Amino acid sequence: MLGPVETRSVSPVFVGRAEELGTLYDALARACEGEPQALLIGGEAGVGKTRLVEEFAAAARDRGAVVALGGCVEIGADGLPFAPFSTALRALRRDLPGELATASAGQEEELARLLPELGESRAGRHDEEGMARLFELTARLLERVAAEHTVVLALEDLHWADASTRHLLSYLVRTLRTGRLIVLATYRSDDIHRRHPLRPLLAELDRLRTIRRLELARFNRDEVGRQVAGILAHEPEPDQVDAIFQRSDGNAFFVEELAVADHEGCRTGLTDTLRDLLLVRVEGLPEPAQHVARIVAEGGSTVEYRLLAAVARLAEDDLIEALRTAVNASILAPAPGGDGYRFRHSLVREAVSDDLLPGERSRLNRRYAEVLETDPALVPADQRATRLASYWYHAHDAAKALPAVLEASVEARRRHAYSEQLRLLERAMELWDSAPEAVRTALRPVDYTEVYPPCGCDPATTALRHLDLLAEAAVAGRLCGERERALKITKRALRLLEDEDDPLRTAWFWIQRSRLVQRLARGDGWQEIATAQELVRGLPPSEVHAEVLATAAHWSMLREPGPETLTAAERAVEYARMVGADEIESNARLTLGGLMVEAGQIEAGLAHMYEVRDEVVARGLAVVLGRSHVNLPSTLEGIGRSEEAVAILREGLGLTRRMGLTESEGWVHGNLAESLISLGRWDEAAEAAVSAQRLGQTAGPYGSGANSQAFLALARGEVSEAARHLAEARASYGPHDPMPQHDLPISCLTVAVAAAEGRLADARAELARTLASGFPLGTQRYAWPLLLQSATAEADARALHAARDGREQVLHAIFSAVKRLTTHAPVWLAHERWVRAELLRAEGRSTPATWSDVVTAFEVLDRPYDLARVRYRLAESLLTGGGEDERDRATELLRLAHTVARHLGARPLDDAATALARRARLPLTPATEPGPTDPADALGLTSRERDVLRLVAAGHTNRRIAEELFISPKTASVHVSNILGKLGVSGRGEAAAVAHRVGLFPAEMVMPGPTG
Predict the structure, then answer these.
(1) What is Dmax (Cα atoms) for the chain?
(2) Phi-psi category of 126—alpha, beta or left, where left has phi over 0 and alpha has psi -120 to 50?
(3) Helices 398-414 & 418-432, crossing angle to 10 degrees?
(4) By the 8 A CB rule, do 503 and 535 touch?
(5) From CA 844, how far away is CA 826, in angstroms rounded?
(6) C-alpha to C-alpha distance for 899 and 895, rounded to whole angstroms
(7) Most exposed among 133, 299, 351, 592, judged by the fewest C-beta atoms under 10 Å?
């Protein structure tokens, strides 16, 4: 290889850019303090972006930072998927091998899609979270590496970036929150025309307050003079500086070229265009050096030495001499960190490439392709397929290009570079008719497509069809977000299938259309699913058949559950099992389990779901793992088992974070907020709701988080804030695809907000609209809160004269709905009693016995806010309809309700309890006697409650407490609830902490016990 060479046109003096360097140094200082920084540097070609980055990188290294540089690689008109990130990660692995290995531990299979040196990437079914999973893991990797080292990640030439690189950069800039990290990217601003693919990204990043954008201006005359002086190593004549400044217009690269041309005495031979100036410099080289320059120009951004040698066909000494000449002339430069060459500036490469004759260009591309086909080791493994496809395509050889392009599409899919996969598949379709039939018939679907299974044929002996490419392209478009293109592709495919008797493939395309229609908010997708069902009806089991059934069952579970849905789920499980479609089977079993629970087969249904959860966790099956940790706890919450749900949701957070399942993590946070609200852990619930909105990329988690925040705001008396969150939830879900799990909570909150604002007519109208649609089977978890809210609103408005008209009809409608709702779980049995009690209150007929039954039903449930509300109602009823002997009981109930309300920040309940106690002249705090000798007296605990608290502090379960004290578990539970209320805490652990803090029990009295 070459020894040291002289680079004559680059100024050894860095000129100007003081303000820009100041901004970069400030970003470095902030990053060193642990605040990630993102900067974009734009400017026209040749203005000095690379030189600025090099200057900053050198200064950053001097200050102890690790600089990882990656450039977007252009091959012809193609960009390599993730090329700058792969190059930068290699640099990090070289400089910080131990740190990168530790940071990537456990996720090597996924991160190998970006950095193949980490191992083999995981094979398996691709899903819509695949690319997001890779992006999240990449962000975590960089944050971990940058935890102990300041890292500068510099990405150059973003104008050549492939779509996947642009998406990953956008993700990093939006999500990086910690680490000593700078993400720096450069791009040519003069190349960004209206339809350039980088333009939307720049607009998106401009809206972020976390990114700084620098636009490099051209040099002024003084700066040009200093640059020329640095190049010439002496002060130039003023006339010479004037001429160069006028010709270059301050462009740093052209200043260099003009200064060297003037110094070498070729000034009189220059033409009027600067582009021709670049060619004149190349044409001044000896012919062997020009020949090598032309070869490098067509090979891509960088050409490896061994590849160049094979294509040039020169003797090695002659090749090295030609390279030395081109490098000395500052036309070519050794590639940084690699054994190859590139043009010192891309403007020169573009000028040389544009000057090639058409036949010369295709001949060079053919030569590159032939050499690379003969010896694939000439280029890095992760670039091989894409470069070979590009070379054959630009060689205009369809016979060779078609299989090469298909191979490159498979590689892009493996790396989750779905945008590049789609582009390559569209290129394959373009080449399809031009390729010889013998080439097409030799292609096999098993080699190039994986999106749908063989439909009645042997994929090893059946030729790849154009239809197969459409199928693969439709999925690639859906996965990369190009859903409009994917929808058009499915339309083309279905038009082709109209003339064929191929029900399985046709059904498969209809299922794809259903998913696309839903994601594009064009409808609910049922018409497409129903069409697919008709097509597979009566056909033998197949993977397509199983997927159609599983899709139909899942759709119906969310929208119109019923006996037919349960049957479809059972058949989906059976068919998937028969054909060995594990992932379809796992998804179908989750659906089946949820439907069984809704149908009353609670334990059997949960057993199905727990089995799937355990299996997918053991196998690391990301496609189903996220859903298992969303659906199972949601089902548990739906039957009132909130603590059990929270345990699984906490596990789900750990797994989804570790595996980079950001969308699933958003869903988990949304469900966690709901369960924590039930358990009275409202501050934690609020945090989870905010996380759901932050992480959720679709309507579901975002709307769920907004709903939870609306509930909390309303319960805390912040009505306008509740209305705002309600509007967010409604806008998130939209009107195109109604689902009970979205619409019924929205209706409940709408009624609640309207009632809180005194708009009873609007609350009634919302209830009437919802009741007219009916409650589908299995939606009782959403229906009971709505009926309760409406009944409560009517009862609260009983004294209003304006509310009398229509009240009887509303109460009758609620009562009719109550009679039709199922109540399999204790939590909904309790809600049924509560709704009936509110209906009686609205009629003025509720009694202490009515409310006592409701309180008893809730005392065995772990729902402190609901219990506090019904205790308040019982106290109110006792004071209204009970005798003087009930005042002590009412006082205790009000104290318990008031304590919980204060603890939760539920101001309306707190105010109501305080007002009622004031009217009845009841003390909300026990009268204190001077100097109590027993802390239990100060806490208001009875002797029995003291005994129970001692066992709670020892870690005993309710069952063990019952055994110790010879009482029933139910009574033990009631005592525990009373204790929590009196202590003003929300859980057993907090109660134990209070007992220890006030010295309630001597250490010897608290013996550790089993936690059950």
Answers:
(1) 116
(2) beta
(3) 160
(4) yes
(5) 27
(6) 6
(7) 351
